[in-house]
Specification:
Elements lengths: L5 H7 L33 E4 L2 E4 L8 E3 L3 E5 L28 H5 L27 H14 L5 H9 L5 H10 L4 H12 L8 H13 L3 H14 L4 H13 L3 H13 L6 H13 L3 H11 L7 H13 L3 H13 L6 H13 L3 H14 L5 H13 L3 H13 L6 H13 L3 H13 L6 H13 L3 H13 L6 H13 L3 H13 L6 H13 L3 H14 L8 H11 L2 H13 L3 H24 L1
Antiparallel strand pairs: 1-2, 3-4
Helix pairs in contact: 3-4, 3-5, 5-7, 7-8, 7-9, 8-9, 9-10, 9-11, 11-12, 11-13, 12-13, 13-14, 13-15, 15-16, 15-17, 17-18, 17-19, 18-19, 19-20, 19-21, 21-22, 21-23, 22-23, 23-24, 23-25, 24-25, 25-26, 26-28, 27-29, 28-29
Keywords: Repeat
Pfam families: PPR, PPR_1, PPR_2, PPR_long
Protein name: Pentatricopeptide repeat-containing protein, mitochondrial
């Protein structure tokens, strides 16, 4: 097995007299049930095995009482390997269920993610494809769209004159570039549909569906779905996109209504489809709704281990451990053996609910009785302790993982790097980055983004730039999130010129700015006193159909108020109203009225 980094052992290793993680004593706890007046006590004969309290029964058939009345969280000492399909549906790919991927990674894949604020919409990003399209042709088309989409029909006229060689790959790549700007994306999509000799197929339709889903343009999305149905182009991916979109928007009834559309177009509704919907509801923190749907449908299909795991995940996400315990026990009643994926879901659920001691106990039970913790299990524990600034304990888990024969991956290192970075131990951070390279687990995009986010949050833009340069040198392409964090770090540090330079760099790389990009830029420009320029970008956002940014509209408006320019507010009010941004429209209208009143007073005085 791979030896842990020597410097890391020397740096954080506790006394050699300390017992290893796997054999430390852990108390067997109980809690008072909210639905009962009595306490749930551990019954039967008790003995301690490897630090874990075992309750009754013959060896090999022991039941372990864990907290919150999950009496059968570990049903027996034997372990049946993972036999179910993965929970994850990101990018709608089929992932193997060998414990290396799937729901394990889907539930919380990035160490720096906020557990309480999952960006469900990101799961619907357009699928990348191997493309044979000339990149210069894609760039040429995107430039025309970007510069001319707001000028009535001018964009289409220029595209007509370019004699673009339309292909599926080109359409998908252009849509990918404008995935955050649904209005220009949809106009391009409609223009392509009208060109002689070209017809959209399932792939291009689904790419457009994903953009509409992410921007919650549900009426247009369903119209497109029915258009696909009329042409015989529907796929399971189409229905999945729609289901996930409605679930993410907490539109449970509409999400379930996709089943009716599937029946209409003669698509079979199997356990995989139902699991997908239950999972989508759970991810949107609609665990109760997912459970109600399951109870309604359970007589019509045969639930599998994946079904119960997604329900478990749904309840854990809303921190309802009593319901999670009920699902776990019901799973066992059905003869299904919780695998390492289910255990990892429960580990995260306990930590999310601030039940640290119970999570530690469950981890020890996994070590003692199986299923053995995998890299993901350790990552969950390491991430938690790093977030709690208990880096020493996190390193103990890291050492224990390596000692058990598991090889740490980029995600584990990213957690440690974030932990040390939070404590501003930057020498250790850079040593860890080198260690990753040496051990054959080079930093990935998530590692670099986590570091850039860390530097930005600690108002260290120069270090963020250093990390960015290292990222580029490693051949890793920055994402929209990379640029957003870089830009924000400079604006917060009042280095406005460099902040604007980051925006220009993003444009040069052909990355379509999203809502956050515009919000960061507009806030930066307002802070710099360049409100007129900020106004131009705000208009651009409204034209593209994006959400109105959360900015200090009063400060923004005050600059124009002082200059006596009410027409700017009136125009913005109209644009915002046309885009359905009524609160912003009212703000702009109010400032227009105030500015006009001020102007009249000046005129009267003279």
């Amino acid at each position: 097995s791979m030896a842990p980094p020597p410097w890391l052992r020397l740096y954080m290793r506790r006394s050699s007299m300390k017992a290893p993680i796997s054999s430390r004593g852990v108390q067997c706890l109980f809690v008072r049930s909210s639905s009962s007046n009595s306490d749930e006590f551990i019954s039967g004969q008790r003995r301690v095995t490897g630090g874990t309290e075992i309750c009754g029964g013959r060896k090999g058939e022991e039941e372990v009482r864990l907290p919150f009345a999950i009496s059968r969280l570990i049903h027996s000492s034997t372990y049946h390997s993972n036999t179910h399909a993965p929970i994850g549906f990101r990018r709608f790919s089929c992932i193997s269920s060998d414990g290396s991927s799937g729901p394990d990674e889907e539930i919380e894949s990035e160490c720096d993610n906020d557990e309480e604020d999952d960006d469900v919409g990101d799961e619907m990003e357009v699928i990348g494809v191997d493309s044979s399209t000339n990149p210069e042709e894609v760039e040429r088309v995107c430039k025309v769209i970007d510069e001319l989409f707001a000028l009535d029909r001018n964009m289409e006229a220029v595209l007509d004159g370019m004699k673009v060689d339309l292909s599926r790959d080109l359409i998908v790549e252009v849509l990918e570039r404008f995935r955050h700007a649904r209005k220009p994306a949809f106009r391009f999509f409609c223009w392509a549909a009208e060109k002689p000799g070209f017809a959209h197929d399932s792939t291009t339709y689904n790419s457009m569906m994903s953009i509409l889903a992410k921007t919650r343009q549900f009426e247009t999305m369903i119209s497109l779905l029915e258009e696909m149905g009329a042409k015989g182009l529907l796929t399971m991916e189409t229905f999945t996109i729609a289901m996930k979109a409605f679930a993410a928007a907490k539109e449970r009834k509409k999400a379930v209504g996709i089943f009716e559309l599937m029946k209409k177009y003669k698509f079979k509704i199997g356990v995989e489809t139902i699991n997908c919907l239950l999972d989508s509801l759970g991810r949107a923190k609609l665990g109760k709704e997912a459970q109600l749907l399951f109870d309604k449908l359970k007589e019509r299909f045969t639930p599998n281990l994946m079904t119960y795991t997604v329900l478990l995940n749904g309840w854990c996400r809303v921190k309802n451990l009593m319901e999670a315990a009920r699902i776990w026990n019901h799973m066992i009643d059905q003869g299904l053996k919780p695998d390492v994926v289910a255990h990892n879901v429960m580990l995260e659920g306990l930590l999310r609910s601030r039940k640290k001691s119970d999570a530690i106990k469950l981890f020890h039970v996994m070590r003692a009785k199986g299923p053995n913790p995998n890299v993901r299990s350790y990552t969950i524990m390491i991430r938690y302790f790093c977030k709690q600034s208990s880096v020493e304990t996190a390193v103990d888990y890291f050492d224990d993982m390596v000692d058990s024969g598991l090889q740490p991956d980029a995600a584990v290192y990213t957690c440690l790097i974030t932990g040390f970075g939070t404590r501003k131990q930057l020498d250790t951070v850079y040593q860890l980055l080198e260690e990753m390279q040496e051990k054959g687990h080079p930093p990935d995009g998530k590692t670099y983004n986590a570091l850039i986010k860390l530097m930005a949050s600690q108002k260290m833009p120069e270090h963020a730039t250093r990390i960015y340069n290292k990222m580029i040198q490693s051949g890793i392409e920055p994402t929209i999130h990379t640029f957003n964090m870089m830009m924000k770090s400079y604006f917060v540090a009042r280095n406005y010129e460099t902040g604007r330079a980051v925006w220009e760099e993003m444009m040069k790389k052909g990355i379509c700015p999203d809502d956050n990009s515009y919000t960061v830029l507009i806030r930066g420009l307002i802070g710099e006193g360049r409100s007129r320029e900020a106004c131009r970008y705000l208009e651009e956002m409204l034209d593209k159909g994006m959400k109105t940014p959360l900015i200090d509209y009063n400060k923004f408006a005050a600059d124009f108020h002082r200059g006596g320019q009410p027409e700017i507010f009136e125009e913005l009010a109209q644009r915002a109203k046309f885009s359905g941004k009524f609160a912003a429209s009212e703000t702009f209208a109010k400032w227009a009225q105030m500015t006009r009143r001020k102007f009249k007073q000046r005129f009267t005085e003279h």
